[in-house]
Structure to design on (658 residues):
């Protein structure tokens, strides 16, 4: 590490670490494919409402196929991916669902990372009691099947009034039920990441340049934010991209089991609502699953590519 | 591999230790489980009962129940007492191995979930053993020639595996193998009395295992392969492997006798994690395949807010996970001579 540091510092500052990492990333075909697909998914997430042949469910236009008598229609030239048991167009449902998948992935990751960085930094930098508690706590978390608690929490928290409706925030419609699911997923997801960040803090804390900073009289705050955090940013980015993938998978599972937000057609909800009739409407089970698979696979590829590019010494 | 000289002396050494130190270690670990199980039960209890008493919650959907009936039901289930007292009552009953009464019909939780324990354990253990047995050779071969075509196939295949929703793989297998081809059953753990798959009770059981086991194996296979491969690559680069190669040992001997032992040690810890992942996946897999186990019951009970059943299954799965971890830690001592029990 120290060797790498000096080599970076001898280079011009502008073309430093990130430019090198980008060059390395570009050589990784799988990572680049992941990035392209992720960008594609983000595009669909933003413009899905315009691309979809039919509007999203609360809009009466979503039920046009139903009124046309096209319920459970197999894929054909008009309904490319068929229609589901209710009589909505599966392709439209998937396109509308993309933004929810991204919402889940990104928000879960933001919350997870915010908690994990604070706890990991305190535990890793100061050690002591916080560190001990974190380690015991995460050990239990790593071992215990947290899905059980996620299901209890989601079920109990979505009991209250107002669930299933949505609120307007800065012109965006935020579904309340889905947001509760997101919060619960984040609560149960941060310990593993906090443990990783703690490890990184421990590693960097022992490096010579931190010692030098201390000798120069830098405050703890300055060392944490100006010196350690930028050094472990690459690891954080990698973990964040993998966490997005994981959160999307988990939300699909929670929704599929019937615990999700029934008024928000996430990909997991499409799978759930057609599950009982899947002998007939196999297309309504196959295609949303493929959408999940592609998205999660792309984020995983991106994460692996970033990991290779940003942390060459961790490379297999 | 265990027949190698090093292996046999290790076994002898350990069997001498086993009587005293190992025994004390196991006892201490079992005692350590008590606060963990208690803690988890308290958290689960508070989470649920803080939301309100279950009878009133269930009533939200059924406004026809009158007040008198409601109060009678609350008294019957002991829900009229303060929550701490309810917890102590519950704990007292659990210590006598009585998990209380289901809120649906009032039958005993024990008789409800008792028959569901074994199917879950069978499914988990069979899948875990198969997954581990398959993943070691695949990962080792993949690591021997890193970045070869074969290795790239394996790594992308396993990345694909971790990207796939467990339950969705189950759905697709059911659609293909049960609905379209009609080769395998789509649900349950055994056929009805009049209709046995493949015409024989034993074969019928096997037929029902195939699809759920495939799903669980595939999912944990991907994680196992990724981990063992990464370890193997690291070990194969270490100095002692270079020394072994320099002394003229065959590639086979170096890989299987020297490297593998060190590479699978961390994987054994991971085995415990994998079991945790599989047990966590139990609700999904069992739900998809209508497997008569704890996972499917858990989903139904949590949706129905049947608190006593939720508590019972949470406790059982926690204990299963902890015991599995203990077994892994003991295995660890046998595999890695550097690990000493304290």
């Amino acid at each position: 590490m120290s060797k790498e540091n000096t080599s970076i510092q001898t280079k011009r500052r502008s073309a430093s670490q990130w430019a090198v990492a980008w060059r390395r990333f570009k050589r990784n075909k799988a990572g680049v494919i992941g990035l392209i697909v992720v960008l594609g998914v983000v595009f669909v997430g933003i413009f899905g409402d315009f691309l979809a042949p039919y509007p999203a469910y609360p809009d009466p236009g979503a039920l046009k196929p139903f009124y046309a008598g096209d319920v459970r229609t197999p894929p054909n030239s008009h309904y490319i991916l068929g229609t589901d048991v209710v009589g909505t167009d599966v392709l439209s449902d998937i396109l509308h669902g993309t933004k929810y998948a991204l919402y889940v992935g990104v928000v879960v990751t933001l919350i997870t990372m915010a908690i994990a960085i604070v706890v990991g930094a305190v535990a890793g930098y100061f050690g002591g009691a916080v560190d001990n508690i974190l380690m015991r706590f995460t050990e239990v978390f790593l071992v215990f099947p947290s899905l059980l608690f996620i299901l209890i929490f989601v079920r109990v928290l979505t009991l209250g009034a107002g669930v299933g409706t949505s609120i307007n925030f800065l012109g965006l419609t935020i579904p309340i039920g889905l947001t509760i699911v997101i919060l619960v997923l984040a609560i149960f997801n941060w310990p593993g990441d906090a443990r990783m960040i703690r490890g990184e803090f421990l590693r960097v804390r022992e490096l010579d340049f931190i010692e030098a900073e201390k000798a120069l009289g830098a405050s703890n705050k300055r060392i944490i934010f100006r010196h350690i955090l930028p050094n472990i940013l690459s690891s954080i980015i990698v973990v964040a991209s993998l966490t997005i993938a994981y959160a999307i998978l988990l939300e699909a599972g929670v929704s599929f089991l019937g615990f999700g937000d029934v008024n928000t057609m996430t990909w997991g909800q499409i799978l759930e609502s057609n599950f009982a009739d899947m002998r007939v409407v196999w297309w309504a089970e196959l295609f949303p699953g493929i959408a999940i698979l592609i998205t999660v696979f792309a984020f995983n590829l991106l994460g692996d590519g970033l990991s290779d590019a940003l942390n060459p010494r961790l490379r297999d | 591999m265990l027949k190698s000289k090093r292996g046999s002396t290790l076994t002898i050494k350990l069997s001498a230790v086993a009587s005293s130190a190992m025994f004390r270690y196991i006892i201490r670990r079992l005692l350590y489980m008590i606060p963990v199980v208690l803690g988890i039960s308290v958290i689960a209890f508070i989470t649920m009962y803080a939301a309100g008493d279950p009878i009133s919650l269930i009533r939200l959907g059924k406004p026809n129940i009158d007040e008198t009936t409601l109060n009678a039901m609350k008294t019957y289930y002991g829900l009229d007492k303060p929550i701490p007292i309810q917890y102590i009552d519950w704990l007292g009953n659990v210590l006598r191995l009585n998990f209380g009464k289901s809120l649906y019909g009032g039958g005993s939780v024990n008789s409800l979930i008792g028959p569901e324990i074994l199917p879950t354990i069978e499914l988990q253990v069979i899948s875990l053993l198969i997954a581990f047995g398959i993943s070691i050779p695949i990962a080792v071969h993949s690591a021997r020639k890193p970045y070869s075509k074969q290795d790239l196939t394996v790594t992308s295949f396993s990345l694909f595996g971790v990207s796939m929703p467990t339950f969705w793989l189950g759905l697709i297998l059911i659609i293909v193998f049960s609905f379209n081809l009609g080769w395998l059953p789509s649900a349950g753990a055994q056929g009805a009395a009049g209709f046995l798959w493949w015409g024989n009770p034993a074969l019928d059981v096997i037929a029902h295992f195939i699809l759920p086991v495939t799903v669980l194996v595939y999912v944990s296979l991907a994680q196992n392969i990724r981990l063992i491969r990464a370890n193997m690559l690291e070990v194969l680069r270490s100095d002692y492997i270079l020394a072994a190669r320099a002394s003229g040992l065959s590639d086979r001997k170096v890989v299987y006798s020297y490297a593998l032992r060190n590479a699978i040690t961390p994987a054994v810890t991971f085995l415990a994690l994998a079991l945790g992942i599989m047990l966590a996946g139990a609700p999904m897999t069992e739900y998809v395949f209508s497997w008569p186990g704890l996972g499917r019951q858990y989903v139904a009970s949590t949706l129905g807010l049947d608190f006593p059943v939720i508590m019972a299954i949470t406790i059982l799965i926690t204990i299963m996970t902890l015991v599995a971890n203990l077994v892994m830690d003991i295995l660890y001592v046998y595999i890695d001579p550097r690990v000493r029990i304290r």
